[in-house]
Amino acid sequence: MSNALHFRDARIVCPVGGERRGDLFVADGRITDAADDATVIDCAGKLLLPAIVDLGVAAIDRAAFRAGGIVRVGLMPDQSPVLDEPGIVQRSLLIGRPDLWIHPIAAATRGLLGTDLAEMAICASAGARAVGTGRRWIADTGVMARVLAYARDLGLVVVSHAEDSGLVGDAVATEGETATRLGLPAAAALAEPLAIARDLMLAESADARLHIRQVTTRAGFDLIRVAKRRGVRVTCGITPAHLLLSDNAMSDFRTFAHLSPPLRSEDDRQAALAALADGTIDVLCSGHDPRGPEEKRLPFADASAGAAGAATLLPLALGLVRDERVSLERLVALLSRNPAALLDIDTGALSLGSEADVMLVDPDAPWQISADTLPGMAGNTPFDGLPVQGRVLRLFKGGREIGAAA
Amino acid sequence: MPSPSDHRPASQIPGGAVFPHRHLTGIEGLQPHEITFLLDEAEGWIAANRGRATPDKRLAGLTQINAFFENSTRTLLSFEIAGKRLGADVVNMHAAQSSVKKGETLIDTAMTLNAMRADVIVIRHMSSGAVRLIADKVDCPVLNAGDGRHEHPTQALLDALTIRRRRGTIHNQRVVICGDLLHSRVARSNILALTALAAEVRVCAPSTLMPPAIERMGVTPFTDFDNALDGADVVMMLRLQTERMTGGYVPSSREYHLRYGLTLDRLARAKPDALVMHPGPMNRGVEIDSNVADHDRSAITEQVEMGVAVRMACLDVLTRRARGVEGWA
């Protein structure tokens, strides 16, 4: 039997080809206009979308990715050991295949210490698709200028984390009423736009490609909006947490709401929704960072930052469509096409000839997010208890089904 | 001598409805009448402590564990005396001699304390929220003796009791809290308690030590101490930790004294009979001059006395359900 597939009667949404109701064929792992001897998959009008490319995950968590419709991830460099050696880069590149394609983001500086340039070209030849600063900021402006200039020579995008480390100090929250009432060390939200402003000027002057993994403040979006208009090669991303929650989610010291960057004010959240709608935001990612109870069942400031997000990314994103914050077509670009373009990989669309990374989605299937039953390594979701809609029915990587969620 | 609780109208409300909380993790969440109830209960213990006539060992046979993950002398001593006066078996656990140093997690420590069948646990910890975390995991009442920058409820209760006794009321009293508000759990609990009891609370600190959005807690912020003191009924000074006096938050202790030290001259801006308070330990000559601290308007030693009474009241009230006190079952 051939491995050809015939998706019959699907609602196909592609960021390139638009939306249509009809059939899709796959042969030899690629999308074709017809296929002989194909296995028929009756889609009954359900959504057929490009599978998700999740840019900037902190851990490799197959079960969570599979449940979330994610077939490719951009892996953050702050692993243990740090992704600053070709051997380590290559290993992380290969361990997920064939189900999961891992695109390592190599460390921009050796050991992510922010002092010496890492071997970007060697790491790129070992499979790194970008370089990054991890979950920290390069405080030394001279070093960041050289990182951007050197990465530009190699055609690599620099994935940065924007929080001025001097202003942040030991803060675990954004300054405001909630942090003050809880007595948590807090930093002004200003730490983000300050960092963005510097990195934008450096990127512009070096003509480098800069991707700010998470932008979460009104002032930050304003800076990026203006810079894009000026032609700066900048893109930015966000996670559903910063679109849907504000700092009052930390009330009662809920460590699942301890994130990096921290949750912001309601005004910043509204600005994030506006930036999503007007196209300032390019990438919607999970920021998947599973942390077990040993890291989360601690006093707020002592708990590790980060949330498990892979399994909840799609339903929360579909909620944004339902709330008319963004169109379905643009959502697909945010989840697959744009991150693929950033990593310079040819996927994220359902065009003829492209790799058949597709998912069949029931956008209406209701379920309740539960920390106890969340697929993956840990259930540290700030959305525990939230009812959502949308489930991945079947998931394919290169035309090969990789075990669908129920 | 009547027991402290049976001549108070509030305590005659049956079913423990007058104080329905299992733990005391903070002032937040307490209703004004619940705070008043604790103050009334404490009132009864003051005379008992002074007289020492008939010992009341109502906590006899109960085990009180004072789990102090952060160094403390005064608060620990106060809780220990309070427990012993009530007849409890008091055990102190210091972080320095505990398995916390060996990497045991806070939850595991809590489970261990719980398994030892404590009847009440008093906790101090350096992280905000730590006490509530433990309270959720143990079967007995938990008393917060200070968690990070978050809350120190018994301090706020003893301060409120001191004010009520010395000024007659808390209602409409103009209370100025001055010092390192940013890092102070004493300030947060006091703000919550005093605003709940309808005092007018002013807070005063350099902007480097002022918590953001503090006005959302119902207080008026000042950076000029002289202006803040204008017409004050109570001046509550906070301790400035020595490590914060060396340039990180304020340039030096002498510059701090220049702007925020409570001197007799400054005190003249407050009402003539204004009360001076300090949670201790004091940095004499930094946030408060000796002649102010030792002035007859100073209530600083009285605060310490009230501390024992308030802690006795809290230990008593929180263990009533377990002891099967009538109406509290």
UniProtKB/TrEMBL annotation, chain A:
Top-level enzyme category: hydrolase
Alphabetical keyword list: Hydrolase, Pyrimidine biosynthesis
GO cellular component, one term: cytoplasm
Gene3D superfamilies, alphabetized: Metal-dependent hydrolases, Urease, subunit C, domain 1
Domain Amidohydrolase-related: 136-401
Source organism superkingdom: Bacteria
GO function term, MF aspect, one: allantoinase activity
Hydrolase found in the keyword field: yes
The keyword Hydrolase is annotated on this UniProt entry: yes
InterPro entries the record matches: Amidohydro-rel, DHOase, DHOase/Allantoinase_Hydrolase, Metal-dep_hydrolase_composite, Metal_Hydrolase
GO biological process, one term: pyrimidine nucleotide biosynthetic process
Stated name of the protein: Dihydroorotase
Upper taxonomic lineage: Bacteria, Pseudomonadati, Pseudomonadota, Alphaproteobacteria, Sphingomonadales
Automatic annotation (TrEMBL), chain B:
An example Gene Ontology biological process: amino acid metabolic process
UniProt entry tagged with the keyword Protein transport: no
Stated name of the protein: Aspartate carbamoyltransferase
Domain Aspartate/ornithine carbamoyltransferase carbamoyl-P binding: residue ranges: 22-164
Domain Aspartate/ornithine carbamoyltransferase Asp/Orn-binding: 172-317
Keywords, in A-Z order: Pyrimidine biosynthesis, Transferase
Enzyme class: transferase
Chain sites annotated for binding L-aspartate: 102, 185, 239
PANTHER family per the UniProt record, alphabetical: ASPARTATE CARBAMOYLTRANSFERASE (PTHR45753:SF6), ORNITHINE CARBAMOYLTRANSFERASE, MITOCHONDRIAL (PTHR45753)
